[in-house]
Amino acid sequence: MNSSISEIDAKVVCYHCGNDCKEEDILEDDKHFCCSGCYTVYDILKDNNLCGYYDLNANAGVSLKAKNFKGKFDYLSEKAIENELLSYQDEQIAKVILSVPSIHCSSCVWLLENFPKILKGVFTSRLNFVKKELSLDFDPNVVSLKEIVELMATLGYEPQINLESTGKLKKIDHETRKLLFKIGVTGFCAGNIMMMSFPEYFNLDLANKLDATYQKFFLYFNFLLALPVFFYGASDYLKGAYYSILENLKGNSNILSVDIPIALGITALFLRSTYETFVPQTAGYWDSMAGLVLFLLVGKWVQTVTFNYLSFDRSYKSYFPLAVKVKNQSANYKNVNELQKGDVFFVHHQELIPTDAILMEGNALIDYSFVTGESNPVKKLKGETVFAGGRQVADQIELLVQKPVSTSYLTQLWNNESFLKEKEIPTTALANAFSKYFTYLTIAIAAAVGIYWKFNNPELIWPAVTAVLMVACPCALTLSLPFTMNTTMSIFGRNKFFVKNQGVIQQLSEIDTMVFDKTGTLTEANHGEVRLVGELSYYEKNLVYGVVSQSVHPLSKLVSSYLQGSNSLEVNYIFEVKGQGIEAIVDGRSVKIGKLDFVKNINAESQNSEVHVMIDNEYKGYFTVEPRFRANWKTLLQKLSKTFTIALLSGDNPRMSETLKPIFGSRMRFNQSPQDKLDYIKQLQNSGSHVMMIGDGLNDAGALRESKIGIALTEDVQAFSPSCDAILDAERIDKLDDYVRFSKTALNIVKLSFLLSVVYNIMGVGWAASGELSPVVAAIFMPLSTLSVVFFSVGLTWLVARYKKMV
């Protein structure tokens, strides 16, 4: 390999990932690489003639700087753990589906689907880009799952393997597949029925016997094509109507399902068309029936298909490791679900503790922000209890299991009734009322029309009554509502606000109270304002900068940014004690930075947001890091407070209460546990408030679940809090008020669609009641009214969004 360190200051970017080659510049084939990891990927692709990867997107790769996978996936060598991940295995083939969240472009798709060319023993590789899942078939005699995962990690596509990976089977969505199959069958039949109905559309004169024979053939053929449409395509609506009527007769419900008027219309179309086909042998309404069912199924599909690449219902298991290294047992690794009281296991730096345990050995510095929201790590001594959900931020520790995972504190929180019961997303009262009264009104009109013609012209009873049932269609509810709401979901998605389903938009419009978390929600998760308490000369700042610029600790990075512009002096020696501080020799001078007890080597208390400095054994002061609020946070809250009651819940201490008091007043609670937050939301809702909770951590999960609407704020839409109803990109929190207002606009558009539908139904029913509505005219009128209502609702939604500059 021909490599060299660049000696020029010109900006050079990595050929693989596009990052600047500041610290290292590896040159190969006239291409620059920022680290050995990126070069390794290029070398692998080059050896397998797969450099076309870079032709699809420039700098398509993922940066591998500072990544070391050695030993990280050793637990996959344990057969018991490997078998839990495999979806199928025999002597010749094994199948696995891996979640790969780092997939981001067409180059990723191209590379991963060419994986068999890179690794011998892999037969097939299929990528679901939307769900970010890779399906692999491989020969277990040639290659192991561990080798596959290690190579994927080397390429920059590290799979997400956690405890939840084994808790659910990777299955195809059979309901969606069944719905699409129904759409296919119904669409095929509808197209052919319309083609066979052309002679009727154009009123062709079929005088001779041969043409008359063809006409009968077309009529009977349409009947045969209509059978699967009625009995298969419309089966869900027919069953829904049947069970709704049954529940009402039993007294279990007093709400008529919207399926009833739909089923009445479809059944009337089928029976009337069957009569027309076999008795007078004239054209029926087969095209109208097939077209109506097709529209309904497409609307149902649009309603069903949401942003399925986002997982709104992640549990705590999705954060926990799949396995941990155990001590003095036959297997080196053990599934965390199998940990029993008395087992001893190891937790490494930055790993999550999966169960309640006692500290046996090591320097334990536990960050509980994942559970409590409190950002300051807690120091634990030998013999003390550490709880599940804490993250070890110092060196490796040895723990003794106190409780199995299933009975830990975090699991008990998750087993709260708020998580066990399914969160209901009902339709609006308007939709229920429309459905109920529309059904009653349709039946009443049909009965009145029948009575009228019985005394005036009995021959028109059957044509008029069936025509009324056919034309009276609640298309505003069955199509306008899902199309409008899904258009709104699409517009929200463009603005990085992702809602779980259309019911969320409806409930969003009913909110009157908003409750905010503080840490990571109103304040930025990984940023802060740095202030120097003490005095440092320009030279001393250069000494400190030389140390902090070498560390990856978040506080060191903040101090390094604060000292930008300083000159980095030569570092002769550096040693970092994880979770405590750094000792270094810089330009021949002794420098210590970190916690007060570490710097002064005494037993002293200091804030975890403070970075103390000692140079040549002389204490110089400290840097303090204050949380930084998100941009426009105050403007947003002031705007919201004019319309909504707003409150604050925080697991952090109240040191910032004076800053927040002018906004929230007395509606602030600090040092709140996850259970406290959940109980507070429950208390508000029991008092009649419609609450929306906005949070970011697992500590907010119970409150998010219990609230009417739970919104998870995140820096990354693929890594957010579980059990939420919507996900909001942190950069767009200042637009929250706009999203709530637009949800009300969407609901008003649905109401206008209802009105338009009523106008169409008055026209259509009046025409049908006269007994003069012919099958051909009905075939044109019904789809036209349905399409116009859908186009009206969708078009108006987009126009309003464009006016509000949301698209």
From TrEMBL:
| GO BP of this protein | copper ion homeostasis
Under the heading InterPro entries, the entry gives: ATPase-cat-bd (IPR021993), ATPase_P-typ_cyto_dom_N (IPR023299), ATPase_P-typ_P_site (IPR018303), ATPase_P-typ_TM_dom_sf (IPR023298), ATPase_P-typ_transduc_dom_A_sf (IPR008250), ATPase_P-type_domA (IPR059000), HAD-like_sf (IPR036412), HAD_sf (IPR023214)
Subcellular location(s) per record: Cell membrane
Transmembrane region positions? 179-197, 217-234, 255-271, 291-310, 437-455, 461-484, 749-770, 776-801
| Family annotation (PROSITE patterns) | ATPASE_E1_E2, HMA_2
Q: Which GO terms describe its molecular function?
A: ATP binding; ATP hydrolysis activity; copper ion binding; P-type divalent copper transporter activity
- Organism this protein belongs to: Lacihabitans soyangensis
Keywords annotated in UniProt: Cell membrane, Hydrolase, Ion transport, Magnesium, Membrane, Metal-binding, Phosphoprotein, Translocase, Transmembrane, Transmembrane helix, Transport
* Listed name of the protein: HAD family hydrolase
Quick check: keyword Transmembrane helix in the entry?
yes
